[in-house]
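Subject: sequence -> structure tokens, single chain

Hey, anyone have a minute? Need the predicted structure for the following. Not urgent.
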Amino acid sequence: MTARTLTTTRSGEADGQDRPPQPRFAFDAFTWKEIAHLLLNLPTALIGFVYAVTVLSTGAFLTVTLIGLPLLALGLLGARQLGKAERARARKLLGLRIDEPSPLPRRDQEFLTRLWAQLKDTVAWRTMLYEFIRLPWGVLTFALVLVSLFVLWPVLPFLARGLSNVDRMLIRGLLSPSDELERRIAELESDRGVVVDTAAADLRRIERDLHDGAQARLVNLAMGLGLAKEKLLEDPDGAAQMVDEAHGEVKLALQELRDLARGIHPAVLTDRGLDAALSSVASRCTVPVTVTASLPSRPVAAIEGIAYFTVSELLQNISKHSGASAATVDVWRSEDRLLIQVSDNGRGGANLDGGTGMAGLADRLGAVDGLFVIDSPEGGPTTVTAELPWRDRVEEPTRDDVRRG
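Reply:
Had a minute. Here:
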């Protein structure tokens, strides 16, 4: 089961039907489909042209009012649906296989943000342009094909093929995704929302841990020391006991702060890198873990941190849910990618919907253009592969360097 599809279908390469057969002196099923498409060009072009003129003129006329821009944005959403219908007609009658454009991002719920995204939607504007161009072309193709049906019958297959090829070019040029960049921009805009949500959740967790843990202990410690101060002259033995208890509270508070700091960014990761940090987290796993890290250098801190917390979360899942007796962690670099593979011999059945945090890991990796793949059949074993982009780190002084300096 994959968190992100690893293979994509490029325009015109879906199933081999994108390229029509060579025209021949015959009326086969494919030729009749092309003829039907060309005859339908006129009525569909009329509908699209009227819609485009109405939306643009109404939106422009009402721009001075509060409802002008929202109406224009709504009209552009409708243009997307016209484009979708045209792509479906092309698939059915022309055998043209093109990808659907990426949907508009929906994570931002603010009205003005959604409105601006709709107003600058290049997919909708290219559809509008298509509807304007298609009216004269629709009139021409309808007239030529209609006349050819009664007058130029012998050359109609060749004429239909040539005219429908022009239609294919128009649809590819204006109704297909402009290029892979558009799709990647939409993905990155969506991933930005994931990053923001993840960061907010992490901040809430840190705040909750501080409030319920170290902060509460420090408050109790202050109260205890205050009482001990009051009893210092009247009851020295009782005051000494209270100070001793406060000393124990200080140790616990310090330990909780260390654990919290380790959860934010462990010192061993900063000072010694991913290999040492993964060995440290593996030593705390309840299942014996073998760690193999083959890294010629260190990646940037952000990628290193995501790699560390990914392995940490996976090892926690192995401890809690797998029932395994052994696990392995392998980390290596392949060209410009950092690869991580965590395996165990447990019961299997892991998936993104199992409530074990796998979906969150997939989102976090996807937000930095990474991949997350789970192979976990029932009965095991389980292998999770994560892939992150590699960017070399600019070396910074470690804590030891700072102390020596």
